[in-house]
Amino acid sequence: MANPPVIIWKDEVERLLRYRELIPRLEVALGKFSWRDSAELIQPVRTTVPLQKHDGFMGLMPAYMENDGVLSTKFVCFYKREDGSTLPATQATVVLLDPEYGNVKAVMDGEVITDMRTAAVSAISAKLLMRPGAEVLAILGTGRQALSHYNVFMEMFSFKEVRVWSHTKERAERFRDSLEEAVRGADVIVTVTRCTEPVLFGQWVKAGAHVAAVGACRPNWRELDDVLMKEAVVYADSREGAMAESGDIILSGVKVFAELGDVINGTKPAHREKTTVFKSLGMGVQDAVSAKLVFDQWKARHSQL
Ligand SMILES: NC(=O)C1=CN([C@@H]2O[C@H](COP(=O)(O)OP(=O)(O)OC[C@H]3O[C@@H](n4cnc5c(N)ncnc54)[C@H](O)[C@@H]3O)[C@@H](O)[C@H]2O)C=CC1
Ligand SMILES: O=C(O)C1=NCCCC1
């Protein structure tokens, strides 16, 4: 009979997950995904259930990596909260299963996993797509994702200047001025906001800059304007995900040039010399790889006790 599932909660996930181990595994998984070999990896576009009364969605994000023996799903609830709300923007749980027997091996906190794997994939996008010698990083947003992005970008790169812009409803009149100031001249811009209308405008973005766009994960939500979308070479984590869920892509009518995995596999070029947008939607396989790493680390620690 199978062992009962282990529960690995937030503090422990935080102790076990490290960017230096996570990033190479995510790069391999992104590459595998882009080969579209179902004998290697299966990951459908997430299913979303609207939570109309609460202005949110529940996303179900399964992934199966046959050769790695990894089967998992994440449940993630995300909300279009009013700014200043004390309720969380996202809550997530990852379930890791044994693919042969179908039993649950572990249930783990998905918030740290979501924060870290999302930031790690944005850092991979910057590694692949930003111009050599990039000096100025701008982060738009000051929530959970802003912090994880700051942490991993500081660990991986050596920017000379980091600008963090925070939206406050109370200072709406200064909103656009300070935003423009934060963005002008930046080499890399990370958008990690909960906004549903464009917050980043192409006219402010330096030619050749790289933008990692992480928010606006619904077909009618935007973070970037049409000018930027049309000027940039657009990359995504998953083409199908982007075409089903990204308002910035669907409503601007632009095409996804490549997935990050295509660049990793060498089947599509990295246009570092041009303005690039990486549109991140989040993928079940990113959670699967992270959960496997957490579980393996957990087992290694517990076998020593
Ligand atoms: N692509 C992916 O894989 C993932 C995307 N996300 C998305 O990333 C975004 C940030 O997530 P968290 O940091 O967890 O949220 P959070 O609630 O911790 O932070 C959100 C930030 O957005 C700002 N904000 C809210 N309304 C705004 C507006 N109208 N204009 C500009 N800024 C505004 C807030 O002041 C705050 O700084 C959300 O849209 C979330 O859905 C989250 C997880 C994974
Ligand atoms: O991939 C995820 O996890 C999420 N993606 C978009 C919205 C919040 C969570």
What do you see in this structure?
This protein has 305 residues and is an alpha/beta fold. The chain has 2 domains: 6-113 and 285-299, ornithine cyclodeaminase, domain 1, CATH 3.30.1780; 115-282, Rossmann fold, CATH 3.40.50. It has 10 helices and 14 strands. The strands form 2 sheets. Strands 1, 2, 3, 4, 5, 6 and 7 form a 7-stranded mixed β-sheet that branches. Helix 2 packs across helix 3 (111-129), helix 2 crosses helix 10 and helix 3 (111-129) crosses helix 10. The chain is globular, with a radius of gyration of 19 Å. Residues 76, 78, 90, 92, 114, 217, 282 line the site of the ligand O=C(O)C1=NCCCC1.
Give the proportion of residues in helices.
25-40%
Strand content: 15-25%
The parts where pLDDT drops under 50 for at least 5 residues are none
The CATH class name of the largest domain reads: Alpha Beta
The major beta sheet can be summarized as: 7 strands, mixed
Q: Kindly name the structural category.
A: alpha/beta
- In CATH, the homologous superfamily of the largest domain goes by the name NAD(P)-binding Rossmann-like Domain
In CATH terms, what is the fold-level topology of the largest domain? Rossmann fold
Number of strands: 14
Subunit structure: Homodimer. Binds the thyroid hormone triiodothyronine (T3); T3 binding inhibits enzymatic activity.
EC number: 1.5.1.1, 1.5.1.25
Enzyme class: oxidoreductase
Organism: Lates calcarifer (Barramundi)
